[in-house]
Amino acid sequence: MKLHVRHTTRYRYTEPLRYALQTLWLTPKSGPSQTVLFWTLGAPGALHEQHDGCGNSIHSYTFVAEASAHVTGSLVNAAGQVDTLGIAEFTDDAAMPHPAFFLRPTALAAPHPSLAEFGRHFVPPSSLPGVTDLGMLLALSRGVAGAVSYQKNSTSVTTTALQAFEAGAGVCQDQAHVMVAVCRSLGIPARYVSGYFYAANEPDLASHAWADICLDVAARRWVSIDVTHSCLIDQRHVRLAVGTDYNACPPIKGIRHGGGEEEMLVDITIEPV
Question: Which of 10, 135, 202, 220 lies deepest, with the highest CB count within 10 Å?
């Protein structure tokens, strides 16, 4: 499926903005699940590209206002066309970190005994170390979706997997974090994926998140599971970035000087071509 994506982030400030430094995880890459046909990125300053430790294409820019300037708004715009292939199972590129790297605790997706206890109901210990059954992982994803029901505006970007699990509610980011944290609690490498999801009747899910789970550590074999929909990723999914948790690959992260209070407005549209 060919999908056209437009992702606009507008900032409004109550006082003049003097300085800003931002990093953008807003450029998808071609891979087993998709082919990026074209992609453009616009920002208030010159963009500098590099790649992080997980192979994501990231861009950064610096904005410095003139002394006499009265800048009270800015805009970051990403847009392009992606041919989604619907391939959920894949082998990591040799340049990616070893699967064991994604076992380590992170602030938003740390292992916990209560998460391990929950996970063992779906994924008992494997007789083959480093190998996990796909059917069990899909059952776990359904269990996570049932334990953490999808509720808009019930959490924030700082909510941890354990907090969402104990509250029993969250959004796609939280469901992905819980899935990742449960897997890590069971000794299964897992990581967070940011992306887009096309559904004409679910515009709130245009900005989406899911999880990569390692099926075979020695073979570096992974599978992408959409916990919100309790399914493997398919042609509705556009992969944007991957990391240990949300903090490792947010759409935009940065610092600023001046500006007073900030208002951020995000608009994402996805249309089939």
Answer: 220
Instruction: Please state, in angstroms and rounded to a whole number, the distance separating the CA atoms of residues 48 and 259.
Output: 24
C-alpha span between 116 and 105 (Å, rounded): 13
Neighbours of 15 (CB within 10 A): 13
Count of C-beta atoms within a 10 Å radius of residue 31: 15
Residue among 58, 74, 78 nearest 20 (CA): 74
Amino acid identity at 49 = E
The CA-CA-CA angle for residues 146, 116, 56, to 5°, reads: 80
- Identify whether the C-beta of residue 192 lies closer than 8 Å to the C-beta of residue 245: yes
180: part of which helix (H) or strand (E)? helix 172-185
DSSP 31: B
Reading the block at residue 199, the tokens are: 């559904």
Rounded to the nearest integer, the mean pLDDT of the chain is 96
Rounded to two decimals, what is the model's pTM? 0.95
H runs (alpha helix) in 13-168: 113-120, 134-147, 161-167
**Could you tell me which of 192, 244, 251, 194 has the C-alpha nearest to residue 59?**
251
